[in-house]
Amino acid sequence: MTPAVPVLMYHSVSPQPPAATRRLSVHPDAFAGQLAVLRRQGCTTPTFAELGDALRSGRPLPERSVVLTFDDGYADFHEYALPLLEAHGFTATVFVTTGWLDDAGSDAAGRPLDRMLSWAQVRDLAGAGIEIGAHSHSHAQLDQIAAPALEEELRRSKLLLEGELGQPVESLAYPFGYSSARVRAAVADGGYRFAAAVGNRLPGPGGDLMAVPRLTVRRTTGEAAFTRTVQGEGIARRFAVDRALTRGWAAVRRGRYAVNRVRGRV
User: Fold this and answer.
1) Which GO terms describe its biological process (predicted)?
2) Residue 265 pLDDT > 70
3) Do residues 7 and 212 make contact, with C-beta atoms less than 8 angstroms apart?
4) pLDDT value at position 205?
5) Is domain 7-262 given the CATH code 3.20.20.370 in the classification?
6) Which residues, other chains included, contact 14 with Cβ-Cβ below 8 Å and sequence gap of 6+?
7) Listed range (110-119, 156-165, 200-209) with the worst mean pLDDT
8) Nearest-angstrom CA–CA distance, 260 and 56
9) pTM of the entire structure?
10) Is 203 exposed, middle or buried (0-12, 13-18, 19+ CB in 10 A)?
11) Closest by CA position to 149, among listed 182, 119, 104
């Protein structure tokens, strides 16, 4: 059986992020310190898909495995995070919002919150051993849109990424962290093998591979708290408020979707 592996959720790694991404950003110096913690702890960093394969098969990952994931596809990953990861011999998974990319061109969709990766940088990351996953096409609220739009968000993102990279894209992370049984079924039907939620808990045996939980890393995450998190210590207490808020908002979102469906809006 695969032991519980912390899956960390990052967004931006930037010294001066805009207000829209600041709370979920990490300063490059702090990120360097966190990677140094992983090195001192003797950690390895499998990709999200490698974790999914291990959870599916029951095959254990190396001891002290920690999965590093990054949502949205900000340009600062290539500028700041990648050199630090390479210096430590670590890898990660980047979930890319294809319609937000800097040179998306006629495929542009949604409203990026900061500078985004280019297609050339996405290819460069893949060539450096970074797993590229999908984060939908326009960063839509997948649990709030109708089936045709949902299927297009999933299909288009996967098609564009696989066309550019020339390799399968097996993983997806839900924009805003929310999904539903309907969304998770569509993700599986769309050819994805694994999907990342938020959850703020450790993955457990027999868990849903279409909703693998992750632990949020913020700008306020200090090195001591980070160390305890990757050691699996005090997670239930440290993330209790996050989980309560997630459950509350999930209930609100289910109700909102039900109302909109009755009114014929989705």
Assistant:
1) carbohydrate metabolic process
2) yes
3) yes
4) 80
5) yes
6) 21, 25, 26, 27, 28, 74, 76, 80, 114
7) 200-209
8) 36
9) 0.96
10) buried
11) 182
Strand-pairing partners, residue 65, are: 44
Nearest to 178 by CA among 220, 213, 134, 229: 213
- DSSP conformation letters of the chain: -PPP--EEEE-EE-SS--HHHHTTEE-HHHHHHHHHHHHHTT-B---HHHHHHHHHH-PPPPTTB-EEEEEE-BHHIIIIIHHHHHHHT---EEEE-GGGSTT-GGG--S--SS-B--HHHHHHHHHTT-EEEE--SS---GGGS-HHHHHHHHHHHHHHHHHHHSS---EEE-GGG---HHHHHHHHHTT-SEEEEEETS---TT--TTSEEEEE--TT--HHHHHHHHTT-SHHHHTHHHHHHHHHHHHHHHHHHHHHHHTT--
Amino acid identity, position 175: P
Structure tokens at 46: 């499998």
Give CA–CA dist 69/11, Å, rounded: 8
User: Using CA atoms, how far apart are residues 24 and 200, in angstroms rounded to an integer?
Assistant: 14
Helix/strand/coil (H/E/C) assignment for every residue in 104-168: CHHHCCCCCCCCECCHHHHHHHHHCCCEEEECCCCCCCHHHCCHHHHHHHHHHHHHHHHHHHCCC
Bridge partner list, 96: 72, 134
Interatomic CA distance for residues 200 and 121, integer angstroms: 30
CB atoms within 10 A of CB 238: 15
* Region of residue 198 (phi > 0: left; psi between -120 and 50: alpha; otherwise: beta): alpha
- To the nearest 10 degrees (0 to 180), the angle between helices 147-165 and 119-127 is 60
Under a CB-based contact definition with an 8 Å cutoff, are residues 72 and 137 in contact? no
CA distance 120 to 135: 18
Q: Which residue type is seen at 243?
A: R
Polymer length of the chain: 266
